[in-house]
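It would be a great kindness if you could assist me with a short task in structural biology. I am sending you one protein, given as its amino acid sequence and as whole-number tokens for its backbone shapes. I would ask you to consider whether the tokens describe a fold that such a sequence might reasonably adopt. The full record is reproduced below for your convenience.
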Amino acid sequence: MMDPQIHLKELLQALPKKWKFDLTHHDLLLPVQSITSDSREVSPGDVFVATHGSKSDGHEFISLAQQKGACLVIGEKKMTIQTLVPYIQVPDSRLALGLLSSHLLKHPSRGMRMLAVTGTSGKTTTTYLLESILKAAGYQVGVIGTVNFRFGDRVYPSTHTTPGAVELQKLLAEMKKDGCDAVVMEVSSHALKQQRVAGIAWDGMIFTNLTREHLDFHPDMNDYFESKAKLFREAFDFSKSVGKAPFAVVNIDDDYGKKLFEEFKANPKSATSSDFCFGTFSLQNNADFSGKGLKLDLQGIHGRSGDIKIESVLTAAYNIQNILGAVTLAWGLKIPNSAIEKGVTNLSNVPGRLEAVRNTQGIHVWVDYAHKSDALEKVLKTLYELKKTQSIITVFGCGGDRDREKRPIMGALALKWSDYVFVTSDNPRTEKPDAVIKEITAGMGSGRHFEVEPDRSKAIYKAIERAKSGDLVLIAGKGHEDYQIIADPSAPSGTRKIHFDDREVAQAALKKRELHLKSMS
């Protein structure tokens, strides 16, 4: 429960001053208990904010919220009938929800160092790097992202990459109360477009890259970019307005990153205002931090970038970019070089992000979350460039009920960069696995260097059985996930989760292979 002493008059001060509304003196003195956009959660004394959802419209539940004792209703539609409680019409309900949620909880983000990472790929790894760097610098760190939400000795399962506005503000308040003085957060395009991070005061932000993804949510790539850019425009400006001096970091190897960089340079404030700062990183181009002095092999990344010595067990060229992004932001926040170096070195792995499955058989086995064409190509191209005489064996599938256009593209890319491919099931959801696989193999030609195995467990076993000492096995698509989503017509959503972890299956397959080899010797 939130502070019951706050009244509507004080609460509504959090809304933009240009939003005009009229309430009586009596209404303004009403005490507020909590705020929600879910009419089912309304209790007496709550503020109900009606938002447009993907499946329902909160405005349809205003009567229910009133009956349950809401003290105020906020929405975007003009009310044509008399309401039982005060009603305020606003231009953006979701923005109101975020701002009011933050205000009710006394703005937890303003008392912590808040770092955001956005982009298509690399968000999770970059947050792990920043977490490690901040811990090396002595911070108590909370993390909100795709894998989980964690702080202190608490770990919560991730509900979304970025939670809803009310849940997010409550989580930040809990982190602050527990002693966190820094929070690192993955910020999705969905969250930015839906104003889930409204009311957060940022200290730093990173743009990693932008490639084809989430076009089942965004109408086109421009809308996808504009959603991401909100973090570097509106959220940046809001942070400055409440007294912070945020530092923005962009990847100038990416076309959309260059676009943001050009915006920064064109903004007169960037040259005249001491509280407007930005940094750049690149693999090969001139930037604040470049990868020109770094070397990559199967054991990791080594070398120097600027004044920072880099020693990391992470591999892959895109992890050089992730490291450079984290280093650039840490540098911009004036974290000591020694802490930056220690933090990078201390990170031994990131769950499901080219995560090594250790074994004594001389096979390099990795589990990776790559479930997009760009991400799959990046990880396979990295392994291809690192291999010598070894073979690359890839296991992958595509999720059902998701972007179908990427399926043949991913099939072609897997075949291009691998010596052999096992095409299997991912999270089929309500689609038939064979139908998804057929669309993948449409991009793979005659099938001389691949085979279809719809059972994901069997596909992993077959890949590891096929591998020889020194070979590279990539199991792609699910990464850190410990479940598989399959069809279930009896469930409300039409699907259910079953336990499935690529890492566990790979370990079991390696064990079986080891026992088989021993029996043959």
Q: What stands out?
A: Residues 211 and 291 are 21 Å apart (CA to CA). Confidence is low (pLDDT under 50) at residues 271-275. The first helix runs from residue 8 to 11. DSSP finds 18 helices and 24 strands in the chain.
